[in-house]
Amino acid sequence: ISPEIKTISPMDIHRILDAAEGSRYHLPIFIAAATGMRVGEILGLQWIDFQPGDLSFDGTEREVPATLTVRRSLAQIPGRVFIKEPKTKRARVVAIPPILRDRLGQEQTISNSIFICAHKSGKRLTPHALDDGFRRICEKIGIQTTMHALRHTWATEQLAAGVPVNVVSEALGHATSQTTLRVYAHVLPHSQRETARVMQRLLARPQW
């Protein structure tokens, strides 16, 4: 893995989520791990952006997965928190796994905010607060990482599993697939091993 790309092991992701359980940080961390969204995009999500899809969804093509639509991003500078457009200036729809859909469905019934990630009072959670909360949780359990590493982990796992680059790029909100290729080129040699195996089976002469 290239030195600038830091990922988190599945075991450590579970440890972080367990340590965050019951806090206001658990849901945004869960969304980051499950979707690869940027922090600002996660905190900009509103309940109108959540569609539960087909509740019987199990991954088959004919069923409709649950989705989150990224329409806005929450930004923060000293003394100011504000809504802005997503980085690519356009909305995008991100499919989410049933485990996250179910958690969102539960949270929606008790939320008193238009924002998906908010304090119990209804006040929205800010990027600085989430970054600080995540850091404290990780320090408590002896893990050195950042929220952004969850995004890198999501992308790396998707590409290593053979998900097409253009699909991963769209989900990440990259301007072009070339951006994804440039950032995550280290993953592709591993996923291409199977292509070499396929051609070996095709071109190798039978041994009689």
Summarize the structure.
With 208 residues, this protein is mainly alpha-helical. It is 47% helix and 11% strand.
List the main descriptive attributes of the protein structure presented here.
two-stranded antiparallel ribbon, 3-stranded antiparallel β-sheet, mainly alpha
Lay out the secondary structure:
Elements: H1 10-20, H2 26-35, H3 39-44, E1 50-51, E2 66-70, E3 73-77, E4 80-84, E5 92-96, H4 98-110, H5 127-140, H6 147-160, H7 165-172, H8 177-183, H9 188-191, H10 193-203
Antiparallel strand pairs: 1-2, 2-5, 3-4
Describe the structure.
By secondary structure, the protein is mainly α. 47% of the residues lie in helices and 11% in strands. It has ten helices and five strands; from the N terminus they run H-H-H-E-E-E-E-E-H-H-H-H-H-H-H. It has helices at residues 10-20, 26-35, 39-44, 98-110, 127-140, 147-160, 165-172, 177-183, 188-191, 193-203; strands at residues 50-51, 66-70, 73-77, 80-84, 92-96. The strands form two sheets. It has a three-stranded antiparallel β-sheet. Strands 3-4 form a two-stranded antiparallel sheet. Strand 3 and strand 4 form a beta hairpin.
Global structural class: mainly alpha
What would you call the quaternary organization?
single chain
Characterize the biggest β-sheet. 3 strands, antiparallel
Termini distance?
A: 42 Å
Fraction in helix? 40-55%
What is the residue-averaged pLDDT? Answer: 88
Number of helices, where a helix is a run of at least 4 consecutive DSSP H or I residues? 10
Instruction: Provide the spatial order of strands within the biggest beta sheet.
Output: 1-2-5
Write down the secondary-structure element order: HHHEEEEEHHHHHHH
Task: Please give the number of β-strands.
Answer: 5
So what's the overall shape?
Answer: globular
Low-confidence stretches: none
Fraction in beta strands: 5-15%
Radius of gyration: 19 Å
